[in-house]
Write a structure and sequence with these properties.
Layout lengths: L1 E2 L2 H13 L5 E3 H11 L13 E3 L2 E3 L13 E2 L3 H4 L25 H10 L5 E4 L6 H12 L3 E5 L6 H4 L1 E6 L2 E6 L1 H8 L2 E5 L12 H4 L4 E2 L6 E2 L6 E6 L19 H5 L3 E4 L5 H14 L6 H19 L9 H14 L2 H9 L4 H14 L11 H27 L7 H8 L2 E4 L1 H14 L6 H15 L6 E6 L1 H4 L6 E4 L5 E3 L3
Parallel strand pairs: 6-13, 6-14, 7-10, 10-13, 15-16
Antiparallel strand pairs: 1-5, 2-4, 3-4, 8-9, 11-12, 16-17, 17-18
Helix pairs in contact: 1-2, 4-5, 10-11, 10-12, 11-14, 12-13, 13-14, 15-17
Amino acid sequence: MIKITAQHEKFINSANEVYPGQSEFSTTQIKKVVAETGCPFPSWFTKKDFRVGHGTYSLELAGVSVMNNVVDLPVSPTTVGTVSTMMNDVSVVPQMIKEFVPFGHFSDLKNILNSGLFFPVFITGLSGNGKTMMVEQICAKLKRECYRVNVTIETDEDDLIGSNTLIDGNIVFREGPVLKAMRKGAVLLIDEIDLASNKIMCLQSILEGSGYLNKKTGEFISPADGFTVVATANTKGKGSDDGRFIGTNVLNEAFLERFSITMEQEYPSNAIEKKILVKEFDKLEVKDAVDFATNLVTWADVIRKSFFEGAIDELISTRRLVHIAQAYKMFDNKLKAIEMCVARFDSETKATFLDLYTKVDAEAEAYQEESEDEADLEYQRQVDQMNQQDNEILEAYEAGIQDGQQSDYEDFLNSELEFREDALHAIAKKAMDRKTGARGLRSIVEGVLLDTMYDLPSMSNVSKVVIDETVIKGESNPILIYDNSSDKKAASE
């Protein structure tokens, strides 16, 4: 523990005057302490390290007590200075994807990032058209470091700039991706920026290229040569009019104005999109898939045209076409792959999309997923077959179907064999799981009874062997019942 600074001490003593013995304060109470005592507003206190709820902060989280004016506090950002910035030498150059196919504004953005100039870019376009991947692959090609931030409505200054963190009993400042990118002259990629709240305004000065004054440490960070900002969004920062991108917000005009240019990214041309899919199929080692790739592109193009004409409410993105290619690798059925990847749409849209593909590709193999009712019927059929074949199995044993074991079976068959209802269901289920159907019933029963068949000849007075569900599952041995005793004994006992 280190003695706190005069600034910290003043607030804690002032808080003790207004709220004696209290360590937890609301924002309103903090403002009251400031107003009544004249102490500076404690910005160090209203950070995540001290937060216990929305607008509520506790000194006890940092080991501070206001009782009896005990004011010891762990090391603060003021005492550690810039040594707490937590810099590291880890490279964040994105990995090159050899199958990547450039399109759209790839060349333009490459020229911008290759110039080394500070030139913020705003890229907008519908979901799944490769905006983020384009930025990362340009950085990979140019061997430029790229710090990616995935924005949500909850993203605040601490997430972007950095925050105070308790490490080994000391509060140190851990830099966020923005400051790291500035120091290293890297590309700052702000993904889905239109999901941000007005807390994103903390980047105003950074978007001007003028550096940033870190209020937590007092340090002014100037951007290194090569630093620039690229933001991606599904909208142009004006919100979503059609409701497709719920959660997007209207961004401040002054904030948007600080981006030098806006690029509108569209879906690739049919030729480019086909090339993307062919490369994906090649990577997946799917043979003879060129026709499938061609049909998928044609299918997606028809859907998109209908969407832009207002005929339908959904469309197929390039990303979803890649997902279909991957599903085809796993399921080896075109229609099933498509159905699995469009299942997020409502049932009518899904049916329309599947029907449309059959018109594009008349040779698409039929696919009909087994319904739950059909599965239940098949399960019951297996159970019924098990009941019917129970006697057949016993007859097979009695006939000595396995050469050389007749004597053993004779001893075995001198005992009554009882299959309980739950055992029959368990056998049928195991046969279904193995996909053997009725053909596998005998082998399942043989596996369960094998040890018992060999043990029985050396045992006397066993009148009945009982098989229940636990035996079939391998959780217990068959139950042996003796004719001279009413006791039931498990073979394992």
